[in-house]
Each structure stands twice: as C-alpha cells, then as structure tokens.
Amino acid sequence: MRMNPKTILGLALVFAVCSTATVWAGLTPEEIAKLGKELTPMGAEKAGNADGTIPAWDGGLTKFPAGYTPGEHYVDPYAGDAAQFTITAANIATYADKLTPGQQALLKAYPDTYEMNVYPTHRSAAYPKRIYDKTIENAKTAELAPGGNGITGAINGVPFPIPKNGQEVIWNHLVRYRADSAARDIGQAAPTRGGSYTLVQFHDEFYMQYSMEGMTETDLNNRIFFFKQEVMAPARLAGGILLVAETMDQVKEHRNAWLYNPGQRRVRRAPNVAYDNPGTAADAMRTSDQLDMYNGAIDRYDWKLVGKKEIYVPYNSYKLQDPSVKFKEILTPLHINQDLVRYELHRVWVVDATLKEGARHIYKRRTFYLDEDSWQIVVVDCYDQRDQLWRVSEGHAMSYYNVPALWTSLEVHTDLQAGRYLAVGLNSENAPYQFFIKRSLEDYTPAALRREGKR
C-alpha cells in the first residue's frame, strides 16, 4: 500500500516531535551510566578540583566520630581543623571570584565585625544506599509536570541528578532526603540593631512521605510531606499550630495548610501560608517560602540554570548546635557571631529566579546556590523591585551522620537595608533533633490538629 506524501510528511513530523520530547524529558543512557562512577550517585562531580582545594568525594561522613552518643547533640568531627585564612572587608578583592554578591555586601556593610573564617573542605554529605539507588532509577524516568510546577516519575531519591534547567535543580532541593520523619525543638530570633531580641520557640515535625522506603508515587496521593509547627514560647504566642500538606504536582493541587488558633479553639484553612506572606513570628524578616531556604510552589518565577561555580559556603557548621554554646553567644548585634561559623570551598549549582511578568512577590530576583553533593541550598541573594540587593540568606549545613543526611544547623536571613537579621533553627540549648519518630498519616489531619490544640 502506497502512502500519500502528505501522510508520510505528517508521520515524520509526529515522530520528530515525539523523539525530541523523549530526549528533552530524560537523560541518555551514557549520561545515566556516569552516576556512581565519575559522578556521585547524587550527580555531583566525584573528583576534586584542579588545585586540590576541593577534595574528591569518598562516600561522605558515614561513621560516628569519637565521643558521639546517638540521641545527643552532634560531635564535631572536624573540631581539630584550623582556619586556613580569614576573609574581611580589607582583603575582599583577593577572594571576590569565590564569593556571592550578597557575601561581599555583608563584608562591606559590617567591615569592623563581619568576617569569614575559611577551613579545609570536607565533602561530608552522605545518604543511605537506597536513596542513591532510587536517585539513579529516577534519572531514567523523572519528568517535570506541565510548566515545571510539579514532578512525575520519581520517588525517594532526587529526581534530576543531572539537571538540564533551573526548575529541575530547585525540585532536587524541595524533595531531598532528610530521613523519613523528624522532630526538632528550635528557637527563632530577630535581634534589633542593638542586639536585643525576643526568643520564639517552636516544636517542628516533618513526615516525609516521599522519602519513605517502599513508597510509590501512587501511594503518595500527591503529598510529598507533612509539616507541623507549634509555637511553644513566648506565652502570648504559645499554642498556635500550623499544619502543611505539601503537594508533588502543584498543577493538580496547591499546598494545603491549616492553623489552630488557641484563643478561638478553632482550626481554619490557611491559604496565605505560602509565597511572600510573612513567616510565623518572624517580625517580617522572612517570607513563608524562605523557611528551609526555599519551600513551596515555584510558579511565580522563571528559573535559569546559570551553571556550577566554586564558592565559599557555610558548611560543617557543628559549632552552632554545640550544647556548650549559648544562644546569646550566637545572637550578636547586626549579624550572628562569625567566630562560630565555618566556611569551606564547595562546588555549587547557581540558579537565577526572576519574577514572571504579572506575578507578585516582594523579591524581584533571587540567586540560589546549591551544594552539589546534597542539593541543599546554602546561600541565597535576594533583590528588591529596584533590583537592589536586599537580603542574604545562609544555610549553615552539616551532616547528620546518624541518618545519614545533610541539612542545616541554622538558617540566617540578613536584611542589608534594615541592618538586622533573623536566625531560625537555634538548637544548642534545646533537645537534639529526633529522626525516624513514630508517626502516621492520621497524626497530620485537621481533626488531629483540633484534638492536639489547647488553650
């Protein structure tokens, strides 16, 4: 049977479009074969850099350091390291190529007190083998939902270990592994320029459905995780509870959130817990989507993958959760105590997020810097509507080696224009993080929130 030439042309076009879509949506077998070989299972470059200042990845920190007792605060495995050099406003030009614009602005804004002590680099990020295996599996099947506002074909591991665009990079951060479940008691403070502050205490719980062993994409029911946060202090705020159900495909369904109000003894929907609405009890020093460095829907920005760069970032920041360090030692005027902060040279993915035309957000542009070994956002530079640098966020990362997973020990959001900052995650005076807590889906429903609420 002979085909009409127009039919042949039409079939050829359909085949070309389908082939193009297949190549765009996934990776080639050659690319996937690199995972676990020249690339780590998470997609980072396994080799060190040319001058040896970044070592090769050797599996990360998988053994407990001497003196660590499970269930207690973490012992610093690198406590014996000495700082190699200190970056100050006076020598900033020497290191400018490895600093973000925000970091440079901080050094210039506080020339007498702000400094960055740089230590030897340790690529301590490590994860369970099943997370590595699932990440390699995801590389073969994961795709962005329409518009990039969701993911399909992925579970447990990061979906895009070899990312092709900025949306894929940010989704890796959003679903990265931090155990199946966790609870933490943390403090938050927004000191005045003079250094006075009111400490807000939270009890947080994370129920990470996406990460749970044996979980399937169908069983998720479009829920990545559940987050519950109760305000414990001060008394005037205590008793309020926030519950969030985060969605995997935000095109199908936006995040669901509820608030328990202890004064009214009622649970209400909380649609405003998203985007640039103020963070809980944060004195307007951060937006809702800045918790965990970035969370929630990505639909208001255009995401551009700039590439990879070597940057001095906060890393292996064990001092900030050391129980011998008091909150008042961390919370100094204008910025946190930089003597307690550790910086290391790491390769990071750089992503520019630019506000879409017609979309609303207080940040017109944000530049994200993500650790290549973990997909943890470690630095963010935020710009206002005048394109002026406004706020700088640093996620002080460390390996929770009993999980194992890399997460932050403290988040700091510094407002350059106000001369103030917000510290979120203060934990040195509180109980250590608890991982793999026993919970079920029934614990994260509006009905459970209503039962738990108290005056």
Summarize the helices and strands and which ones pair or pack.
Blueprint: H1 5-25, H2 29-33, E1 85-87, H3 92-95, H4 101-109, E2 116-118, H5 129-141, E3 143-144, E4 151-152, H6 166-174, E5 181-189, E6 200-207, H7 217-220, E7 223-233, E8 241-247, E9 256-261, E10 266-269, E11 301-314, H8 327-330, E12 343-355, E13 365-371, E14 377-383, E15 389-400, E16 405-415, E17 420-426, E18 434-435, H9 446-452
Antiparallel strand pairs: 1-2, 3-4, 5-6, 5-17, 5-18, 6-7, 7-8, 8-9, 9-10, 11-12, 12-13, 13-14, 14-15, 15-16, 16-17
Backbone CA Rg: 22 Å
Shape: globular
How would you spell out the order of helices and strands?
HHEHHEHEEHEEHEEEEEHEEEEEEEH
Q: Could you tell me the strand content as a percent range?
A: 25-35%
Task: Tell how many strands the DSSP assignment holds.
Answer: 18
Number of domains: 1
CATH topology: outer membrane lipoprotein receptor (LolB), chain A
User: Number of helical segments?
Assistant: 9
* Protein structure class: alpha+beta
Estimate percent helicity.
10-25%
